[in-house]
Structure formats: C-alpha cells, structure tokens
C-alpha cells in the first residue's frame, strides 16, 4: 500500500515514520510504502520554523537540518538580530530558533551584551520605524538631550542622533529633555552632582547654595527660578545665576522688587513662596517687625524681604483723616435725666511708630477715651444747660482728649455731638413747654399788630375827614375791591354818573 505526499513549490515538508524524523522533502510528489508515514508541511513565506523537540532533532540529524535551516543559538549573554528579506526579528539570550533557507534571504548578526548593549549605528538606520521585542530605538533631535539609564544608573548623555539599545535582561530608560526649557527635572539629580561631575561641567550650570544664600536663575533676561538656601539645582548651559547673601540684609533692592514683584505675574508666582511682600498705598505708612521687634518705617510703594531665617510681620497705617462714630451712649445728666447721645470725632495719626509702639489697638483706644470724655461732660451738667449750649460738650470732650491722644502721636482734629435723644416723656414735657412759650409769644405779637392796625386806621380817618380828594380815593379803592368780585358789569350812561350813582355818601 502506497502513501503519497504533495509538497507545493513554496512549501517544504518534514517526513516522519512512526514519529521519527526521516528527511526534509522538496516540492513535488513523494510516495512511501505503508501507513506509518506522515508529513508536516511548512509555508516558506513564514521563514521561521516552529519545530517540536528541536534540540533533539539537531543532536540526531544535525547535517540534514543545517542543510535546510539557518540555526540561531544564543548564550545567556548574547542576542541576535535576524534579517528575513525586508523584515527583521530579534532573538533574545539563551534561545534556539531555526529559519528555512533558500526561499527568503536570512542574515544573522550576533551581539555580546556583556561588552555593549548599544546597537551599532548602521543597524539602527536599517531598523528605523520598526518595533522589535527586546530592542529600544530612540531619536534625539537637535534641540534635545537624552539621558541613558541602565537599571536606574546613569550611563551617559545622548546628543542628537538615532540610537538603539538591547533591553534583554536589563532595564533601560532614556528620558529625553528639551534644551529650550532651561530648567530640566533630572531624575536623581543629587547623584549627577556627586558621581557625574563631567556631565555637569559639560552640559549644565550648577547651583549649590549655603545656609544664608538664595539664588535667582535667569534665561534670556527672564527669571525662571528662585532657589532657597541650601539648594542644589542643575540648569542647562546658557542660564545665568545670581547668588545673594541674605545673612545681614534680607530686604530686596528696588530693582529686584520691580523685577520679582511688580513685573510679570508668572515671575511673582515663582518668587512668592520665598518673599514677604507688602504694598504701602499712598497716604499710608508701613511698619516692619522682625520677631516682634520694630525695625523700620516703610514709605509708599512695594517692599519685599527674603523670609528665610526670619519671622517678619508688617502692617500698614492710614495717615489720612479718620472718622470715628460713638453712637448710642446712654448717660444720666446731673439732674438724673437719662440721655442717649451720638458723637463724631475726626483724628489723624501723626506719629505711627509712637502710636503702634504704645497702643495695641489705636481705634479702640480713641473710642474708649471718647466714651469716658463724653460721660464726664454730660454727667456734670443739667439737661437745661446741655440743651442751651451743646458746644460746651464738644469743648469739654476736646479738652479731655487732646492730652490723651497727643501722648501717642495722634492728632484730634474735630469732635462734636451729633444728636441728643431724650426719653419719650421728657420729650413730651419739653414740647408742651415750647408750645406754651410760642403761644405766649404769638399772643404778644398779635396784640402788637392789632394796636398798630387800629392806630393806622385812626390816622387814615383823620386825613379823610378834612380832605375830599383822599375820601374820593378811598371810595375808588373800595369800588375796585367790589369789582374784583363781580363777574359781569353792564355800564349805562357816562362814567361820572356811574361813579356818582353807585356810591353816594350822604354828607352831613
């Protein structure tokens, strides 16, 4: 009994008898006698052959297999790069793989990973745009610098170019930094300082500060970092660093205030955590304290201090005229009448240092003293005296206040009672008194006017008694008044007859 096998032109076959390998079959028809023959076919378009018991087959049939296969065997410390026509594949350490010969060109390159895990540049260019297991490819542009790390240990910098590194049995990291950003964040920056001074000297501007030093880093005349004392920082070359000693004077000069505080908002954000900043408005005065002790007055404008090693506090004093209201003060007058008063005072702080040195609360002090002065002024006078001369209260309060506030550098410019509010029953009684006084005054005025009117009428009568013309004028005046109240008048006859007939006065 024959058994036939057909191998296509793009195939190869492996002939087995009772599971034992016999030979590799070329394309064509093959016949064998018996039923225990079988063939496993392989498509040469897939150049790598996946064979079972490959190690055993190579030991027992090495000559046959080497004739048809390219055998790639790597050790624990080696790897291989295999070109299969236009494609590439990698073979990791301690592996055994075989590839068919004769259909697709196979090219094998071995690499000793103990000597160098970097791939030669010639292979990197051929592998461009490919992703292969166990191989990391990276491209560094002209504006970048790469940092090669193996097992978290820095190896060397990578300048512009293309690179490839084997990653079998090792951890390879290649962070890439943009040189246009002058303040990179290097991993393990302290290790670079201590163990790689050649890299720091070649590529970086190093900053190491003492306990009483701060630094300002600038790139292209723009602030990019503000460093506190005891800092260590690496910048790319091209960055200028200004180191400032703050041991004796922590105040920023005017030029630096303008740059860090009054300039760009992003610069202020960088410096904000390192500075104590105060803005003193116009007509104000600032006061600086260090650890609770007064240091100096501050003129209007921006001020800044380095905060390191100091406990700074500041406050702003308003030098303008300030108004203080003392409202709703309930006080008994000398004659036991309860009164409610509202007082207004205007004061100005002339010597802020003396005021803040002597007083914890300036406004509270002035308010309390105004209360005491008002109570003293009202409690020693009767209600009538208070109502007759409210200015006396103002004078009394001012006399009390002036020496009190001048002692602390405060000038009292004005003080005055706004309102004196009486109880309801007292107000009603006063209203009655005022009403009676005004009524009496009205009666006197009315009688005076009546007497004057009577005297005037008597004088008029005496004039008309012996003067017909004056009498006639009075008659015409009376006629005018009557005519003003008549809506319609019919005139018959001459004007003389009308005047004579309408008004006839019997003469005695």
Describe, in plain words, how this protein is organized in 3D.
InterPro entries: Band-7_stomatin-like, Band_7, Band_7/SPFH_dom_sf, Stomatin_HflK_fam. Residues 275-434 form the Band domain. Pfam families: Band_7. The structure is a single chain. With 508 residues, this protein is of the alpha+beta class. Among the domains are: 322-422, Tetrahydropterin Synthase, Chain A (2-Layer Sandwich); 468-508, no CATH class. The protein contains 14 helices and 30 strands. The strands form 11 sheets. Strands 13, 14, 16 and 17 form a 4-stranded antiparallel β-sheet that branches. Strands 3-2-5 form a 3-stranded antiparallel β-sheet, covered by helices on one side. The protein has a 3-stranded antiparallel β-sheet with strand order 6-10-7. A hairpin with a 2-residue loop joins strand 19 (213-219) and strand 20. The longest helix is centred in the last third of the chain and has 42 residues, at 424-465.
Provide a compact summary of the structure.
It is built from 14 helices and 30 strands. With 508 residues, it is an alpha+beta fold.
Number of helices: 14
Q: State Rg.
A: 57 Å
Instruction: Kindly provide the name of the CATH class of the domain at 322-422.
Output: Alpha Beta
Distance separating the two termini: 190 Å
CATH homologous superfamily (4th level) name of the domain at 322-422: Band 7 domain
Family: Belongs to the band 7/mec-2 family.
GO cellular component, one term: plasma membrane
Pfam families: Band_7
Protein name: Band 7 domain-containing protein
């Amino acid at each position: 009994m024959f058994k036939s096998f057909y191998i296509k032109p793009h195939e190869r076959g492996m002939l087995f008898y009772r599971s034992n390998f016999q030979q590799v079959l070329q394309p064509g028809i093959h016949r064998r006698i018996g039923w225990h023959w079988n063939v496993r076919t392989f498509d040469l378009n897939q150049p790598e052959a996946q064979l079972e018991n490959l190690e055993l087959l190579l030991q027992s049939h090495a000559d046959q297999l080497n004739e048809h296969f390219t055998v790639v065997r790597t050790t624990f410390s080696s790897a291989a790069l295999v070109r299969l026509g236009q494609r590439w594949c990698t073979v990791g350490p301690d592996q055994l793989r075989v590839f068919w010969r004769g259909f697709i060109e196979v090219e094998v390159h071995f690499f000793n990973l103990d000597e160098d895990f970097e791939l030669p540049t010639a292979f990197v260019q051929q592998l461009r745009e490919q992703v292969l297991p166990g191989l990391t490819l990276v491209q560094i542009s002209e504006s970048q610098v790469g940092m090669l790390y193996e097992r978290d240990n820095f190896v060397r910098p990578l300048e512009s170019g293309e690179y490839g590194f084997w990653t079998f049995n090792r951890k390879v990291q290649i962070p890439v930094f943009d040189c246009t950003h002058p303040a990179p964040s290097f991993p393990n920056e302290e290790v670079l300082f201590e163990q790689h001074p050649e890299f720091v000297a070649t590529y970086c501007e190093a900053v190491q500060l003492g306990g009483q030093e701060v630094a300002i880093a600038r790139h292209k005349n723009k602030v990019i970092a503000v460093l506190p004392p005891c800092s260590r920082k690496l910048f790319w070359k091209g960055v200028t660093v200004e180191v400032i000693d703050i041991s004796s004077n922590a105040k920023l000069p005017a030029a630096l205030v303008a740059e860090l505080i009054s300039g760009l908002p992003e610069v202020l954000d960088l410096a904000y955590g390192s500075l104590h900043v105060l803005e003193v408005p116009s007509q104000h005065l600032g006061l600086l304290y260090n650890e609770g002790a007064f240091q100096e007055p501050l003129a209007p404008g921006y001020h800044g201090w380095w905060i390191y090693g100091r406990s700074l506090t500041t406050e702003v004093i308003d030098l303008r005229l300030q108004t203080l209201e003392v409202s709703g003060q309930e006080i008994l007058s000398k004659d036991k009448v309860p009164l409610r008063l509202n007082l207004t005072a205007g004061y100005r702080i002339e010597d802020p240092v003396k005021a803040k040195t002597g007083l914890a609360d300036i406004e509270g002090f002035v308010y309390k003293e105004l209360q005491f002065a008002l109570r003293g002024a009202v409690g020693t006078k009767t209600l009538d005296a208070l109502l007759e001369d409210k200015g006396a209260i103002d004078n009394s309060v001012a006399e009390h206040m002036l020496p009190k506030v001048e002692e602390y550098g405060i000038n009292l410019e004005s003080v005055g009672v706004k309102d004196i509010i009486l109880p309801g029953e007292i107000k009603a009684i006063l209203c009655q008194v005022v009403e009676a006084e005004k009524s009496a005054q009205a009666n006197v005025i009315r009688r005076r006017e009546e007497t004057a009117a009577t005297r005037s009428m008597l004088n008029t009568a005496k004039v008309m008694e012996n003067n017909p013309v004056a009498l006639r004028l009075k008659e015409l005046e009376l006629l005018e008044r009557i005519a003003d109240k008549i809506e319609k008048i019919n005139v018959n006859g001459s004007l003389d007859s009308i005047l004579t007939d309408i008004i006839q006065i019997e003469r005695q």
